Amino acid sequence: MLTNYNTYVELRLEMVLGIGTDILKIDRIRKSYTSNEDSFIKKTYTYKEQKQAVERSDPALYFATRYAGKEAVFKSLGIDGNIIKLNEIEILGTDTGQPKVTLLGKLKDIAAQKGVVNVYISLSYDTDYAVAYAIVESYIV
Questions:
Q1: What pLDDT, in 10s, does the model give residues 107-134?
Q2: What is the DSSP letter of 115?
Q3: Among candidates 10, 135, 131, which has minimal Cα distance to 64?
Q4: Are 78 and 100 in contact (CB under 8 A)?
């Protein structure tokens, strides 16, 4: 119950701006991954992603889920994938294991112009495939 009717409250409603999904055969990454010095790895993943990957027992699996995630994120933003660099999308595992997306560089600016405030992502894999689902959220003020 409101007791002070003179208090101004700004109401911000969340709105789904876009969704994206991607599925990837894990062997595509496994066959191309040799080390973090590989040119594909350097141009696709941030330094922090590369660091997290080598801490895993199977770095190629980590890279595969992140690659699917990056594809899902740019699809959810509704932009042409040719105008961005995949290393402008950083997907890191948190302490709880939940992946967190950070947009960088030119892509961060594009997202800000679209009013993006949150990017949610889910990553999963099974024997042969990695899958990702992303939701981009903006605010209506």
A1: 999 999 989 999 999 999 999 999 999 9
A2: T
A3: 131
A4: no
